[in-house]
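The passage that follows is intended for readers who have already worked through the single-chain material. We present the inputs for a multi-component assembly, then the predicted structure in tokenized form, and finally a short commentary. You are encouraged to pause after the input and sketch how you expect the pieces to fit together before reading on.
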Amino acid sequence: MKSAKHELGQRIEHFKQECSKAGVRLTHQRLEVFREIAEACDHPDASTVHKRLRKTMPTISLDTVYRTLWLLDDLGLISTLGPTRERTRFDANLDCHHHFVCSRCGMTRDFSSEEFDDLDPPPSVKTFGRIEMTRVEVNGLCRNCIAENAKPER
Amino acid sequence: MKSAKHELGQRIEHFKQECSKAGVRLTHQRLEVFREIAEACDHPDASTVHKRLRKTMPTISLDTVYRTLWLLDDLGLISTLGPTRERTRFDANLDCHHHFVCSRCGMTRDFSSEEFDDLDPPPSVKTFGRIEMTRVEVNGLCRNCIAENAKPER
DNA sequence: TTAGGTGCAAATTCTTTGCACCCTG
DNA sequence: CAGGGTGCAAAGAATTTGCACCTAA
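Having made your guess, compare it with the prediction:
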């Protein structure tokens, strides 16, 4: 719904404004990468975006897609699913629980909440498939990152 | 809380039972990998687990850690954060929204819910840091995976 | 004993980087 | 026109795999 056609034009306008605001050049490649992500509803990874774009831009390179995706992320125009630029992380806590994830360093901690354990997704979600578990992810800056907010991290 | 010391023994017992139930040998390496994950509260990645284990088992290899982690995951003894074995995925939907993620194939779809938009984490979460966003992740099997449930996927 | 498990090293796969040429502003 | 941006190819990381030896059952 949110990515509906009638909004796409506005979002592309916004993208153009943000580029010029940030002093970043508006290239054909950047525009198409943004459009592809904005139109997709399946949250593709870099290589999928590349594959799709090649149909209309046969010469676009995978590394440009990577560079552009991270640029858009830095500009706050797109975001990533799960902890950014992180490896797969493991969890041995099988009880129902929820996560706090630092959006800067990826620090992750469990917490529990009876209220959150009983969340009931809207009926429309059932059209996607069978629901097995519902979990809350809280994002924010961890104490550590707040403390060293001035220092570089990445 | 959930990983408190007094529970560790029970969890290791459970792990041993599951191994024998699955016909999988109980090796020193597997036990230590499981113990490390069960004791850690920071959801380490494979290489972090390896690094920690080398202090007490200098010869354990990184590939054994990988193999063991996925084995434990298959046995349902641990789980992963975010979409399993997936690359970084991107999201251009900046409005507040929530996700349905297929636990088998990783298919991800957005949905919205006013109720979920206003969730308020328990006060204890504030001790981790500053809260910026709260989002619900619904896990389950997507229609596609339900349909081809018999076929191999991975 | 003996098949499954491990360590090592090599192979894959994914992502990033250096550099020369191109195109936006 | 100038400097940022792109494509290409090569480098770097992360993860997986083949194989011979080892060990739990």
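Commentary: The helical segments of chain B are 5-21, 28-39, 46-54, 62-74, 114-117, 143-147. Residues 1-5 of chain B have pLDDT under 50 and may be disordered. How closely did your sketch match?
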